Amino acid sequence: MRLGIAAIAALTAGAAVAATPAPPWQTVETTQVGALTLTVESQDGAENSPRLVIAAPGGRATTISLNGGLAAVSDAISTKALADRNTLHSKYLFATDALKDRASGDRLLVVFGAAEDPDPYAIRVLHVAANGRVQTLYSNEAFELTGIADLNKDGVPELIGRPSWSQMDAKCLSTYDPTAVLRLSGGQYVDDEKLSKTYNIAHYVWAGPKSREDIAVNICIHPPKLATVPKGH
């Protein structure tokens, strides 16, 4: 079957478009941590831009990508006292002396990803070894890191944060959204309900580890108290 001139032209145009290479990744910032080079790079049109490349001597390289790209530390961490503890001169990478592997002394690195409104930003907590090996200790698509503290006094600090943000149902009343406390166990950060309960009783209220819309919290009094959700909400 013979193709008409218009059909041939359309196929040729389609082939030209398909053959167009993606634009190159461009370096946004470079941070040196010991012998490791941490490079944040961007690419026009890429859904995972910017991304992080961790390179070690000898050629080992690991790329950390999050859907929507890396988020700035100043946007993802709203607690100024915590953001000020960043020991890295980086817009996108967060590390603090409190977060280190106790056995090896390797630094733990935290990166954040784009938020899905109305949820908090995504988060990855990474163990970056001196040889460039990267292990993900915690991954969540919605978690606002608000604190780092050794709450159970075992010598290893816990991560404190909000998996969800409260929404106002009426004047003074918000949805129930407890803070979560994450404990390092077996090379992973896991939810510790006991520590979470103790923390929320001291700083908020407690009605279980999960957010709920069938109860409300009166935030106009101190300390806050559980309340009944108004009819129609």
| Outline type | globular
Q: What percentage of the residues does DSSP assign to strands (E)?
A: 35-45%
The total of beta strands comes to: 17
What's the alpha carbon Rg, rounded to whole Å? 23 Å
Average pLDDT: 90
Oligomerization category of the chains in this entry: single chain
Order of helices and strands: HEEEEEHHEEEEEEEEEEHEE
Summarize the biggest pleated sheet.
5 strands, antiparallel
Could you name the ranges where pLDDT drops below 50 across 5 or more consecutive residues? none
Percent helix among the residues?
A: 10-25%
Separation of termini?
66 Å
Q: DSSP helix count?
A: 4
| Structural class computed from helices and strand pairing | mainly beta
Give an overview of the whole structure.
The structure is a single chain. The chain is mainly β and 233 residues long. It contains 4 helices and 17 strands. The strands form 4 sheets. Strands 5, 6, 7, 8 and 9 form a 5-stranded antiparallel β-sheet that branches. Strands 1-2-3-4 form a 4-stranded antiparallel β-sheet, with no helix packed on it. Strands 10-11-14-15 form a 4-stranded antiparallel β-sheet, covered by helices on one side. A hairpin with a 6-residue loop joins strand 16 (212-218) and strand 17. The radius of gyration is 23 Å and the shape is globular.
Nutshell version of this structure?
This protein has 4 helices and 17 strands.
